[in-house]
Amino acid sequence: MNSDKEILEKIGKGSYGVPDxxxxxxxxxxxxxxxxxxxxxxxxxxxxxxxxxxxCFAAILxxxxxxxxxxxxxxxxxxQSYTEATYADMISITRPEIIYSAMEYEHEDISDEDIINYLxxxxxxxxxxxxxxx
Amino acid sequence: MMDDKExxxxxxxxxxxxxxxxxxxxxxxxxxxxxRRFLCSHEDTDDLLxxxxxxxWTALPSFRAESQLYTWIYRIATNETLNxxxxxxxxxxxxxxxxxxxxxxxxxxxxxxxxxxxxxxxMKAVQKLPEKQRLVFIMRWFEDxxxxxxxxxxxxxxxxxxxxxxxxxxxxxxxLKKY
Lengths: 134, 179
Fold this sequence. Notes:
The complex is a heterodimer of chains A (134) and B (179). Chain A has eight helices and no strands. Chain A is mainly alpha-helical and 134 residues long. Chain A has a domain at 21-75. In chain B, helix 4 crosses helix 8. Classes of the chains: A mainly alpha (134), B mainly alpha (179). The A-B interface holds A 1, 3-5, 7-8, 10-19, 23, 26-27, 29-31, 33-35, 37, 112, 115-116, 119-120, 124-126, 129 and B 16-17, 20-21, 24-25, 28-29, 32-33, 36-37, 42, 46, 49-50, 53-54, 57-58, 86-87, 89-91, 93-95, 110, 112-116, 118-120, 122-123, 141-142, 166, 169-170, 172-173, 176.
């Protein structure tokens, strides 16, 4: 342990530098955080409940409209329905979605970088990656 | 520069923004060096410090004086740094790379590294340590924090920290002998 200490004692601790005036600039930027993040409580706080209510109505109307359009116009051709039914018989009843999801997404252009960003944003851990790789 | 008690008094008296500015004044430079030694990049450290101080500002109302302000701030900074590194570790693993190798490369590529060769080798050896040992070594050797404070920051017993430091120092000595 003494020899560890001797080696480490020879080494100086400050080995990094920063651009000139960096810490003054940093302090100015950090000190501005409360001003940037404090919401003006005036008009917005008064309008907020009405805006939330209007957003709920709009969401219900849009969802209803989208549902009606889908059921009315997206009738599948008879031969496609037959193909899907044939595949459906071949796969597990517990995971019927896999055949349909494969059909829907096969033409989408997803890069490796998109997948990496998705996994990182969703908080994938090293343990989950190791489990998925087994 | 105010001490922690004065800052907290200021905060509880309702002068929240002024108290935060005092925290920035007291801690920004210390936390910069704390984070920089883990990330080995000036740009990443600068970005992460914004996140850390934003977190401090939003979490300040929930601060209870059960712990010291100093260790509470260091705990936030350390947790944010580890989260950042874990994301980078996942990103590196998905590209079949090693984060520890990338951090070692960054030391060579860093235009703001102004140490000598021995210091460069030491920083590289530190990046090769396991996470816990790296944490303890950086906080104890570089920042001169007491084991008691490190224990409060990391939530680990003093005995375990001393053992981690002992193993870390041994590995660094062995690594330095290779150069």
